[in-house]
């Protein structure tokens, strides 16, 4: 069923739906996966927001299905997580990127997908995050150094420790234990630990809220989609994916 304004947002662990609904009246969908945007285009949306998305065991959203939506006259916004990654790659073609994470990937200051990856719980529990995103750790440590909570050198070392961890194991508790084992000053670690409850920054959440407010302003202002700045190539594989509802029978990515 289409919302009155035709707004749809793919959302998961980055932001609870109840919080999101206070900023934007939209249809909220689970994290985006391969084929979801193709199927959503059948509902004739005005705009699509992508925050969270699957990868790894569940195939990720194709670049080409986002280009398909843009070519169909749909405004596609991205931020925070999978949305930031795809927007950084597709903004030259009309996808609208929002927020600091998108800007960092667009400008080449971040490159690795694991910067935004987290492990999370099931949908029935609201996708609770069970690890900390690297982009959040980076921003929090930068703020701590700027505020004089820890020296800049200590913040850089903690950042390196976090980056070396698999994304599934990232969290401040694990970082503190490894830092202590390396012999980082106990007093500095204690100061940071005491500051974290009020000082921790959730950059992904901030960017998601920015996306919702951007979409709200866009809709309130008449909401015209950017012009598609590319030729959309209809290949046999793409046409088969359309017929199959977004499923690629060969298992190969569409690009």
UniProtKB/TrEMBL annotation:
Q: What is this protein called?
A: TfuA-like core domain-containing protein
Sorted keywords for this record are: Plasmid
Q: Which organism is it from?
A: Azospirillum baldaniorum
In terms of InterPro entries, this protein maps to: TfuA_core (IPR012924)
Domain TfuA-like core: where? 52-170
Top-level taxon: Bacteria
């Amino acid at each position: 069923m289409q919302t009155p304004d035709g707004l749809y947002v793919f959302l998961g662990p980055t932001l609870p739906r109840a919080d999101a609904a206070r900023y934007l009246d939209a249809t909220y969908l689970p994290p985006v996966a391969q084929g979801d945007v193709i199927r959503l285009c059948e509902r004739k949306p005005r705009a699509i927001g992508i925050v969270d998305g699957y990868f790894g065991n569940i195939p990720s959203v194709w670049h080409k299905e986002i280009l398909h939506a843009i070519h169909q006259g749909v405004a596609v916004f991205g931020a925070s997580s999978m949305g930031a990654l795809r927007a950084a790659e597709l903004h030259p073609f009309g996808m609208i990127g929002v927020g600091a994470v998108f800007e960092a990937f667009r400008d080449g200051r971040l490159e690795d997908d694991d910067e935004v990856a987290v492990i999370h719980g099931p949908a029935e529990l609201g996708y609770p995050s069970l690890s900390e995103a690297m982009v959040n750790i980076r921003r929090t440590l930068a703020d701590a150094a700027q505020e004089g909570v820890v020296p800049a050198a200590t913040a850089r070392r903690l950042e390196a420790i976090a980056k070396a961890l698999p994304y599934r194991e990232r969290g401040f508790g694990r970082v503190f234990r490894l830092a202590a084992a390396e012999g980082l000053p106990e007093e500095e670690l204690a100061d940071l630990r005491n500051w974290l409850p009020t000082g921790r920054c959730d950059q992904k959440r901030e960017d998601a809220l920015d996306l919702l407010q951007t979409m709200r302003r866009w809709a309130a202002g008449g909401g015209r989609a950017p012009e598609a700045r590319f030729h959309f190539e209809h290949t046999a594989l793409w046409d088969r994916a359309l017929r199959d509802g977004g499923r690629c029978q060969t298992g190969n990515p569409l690009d």
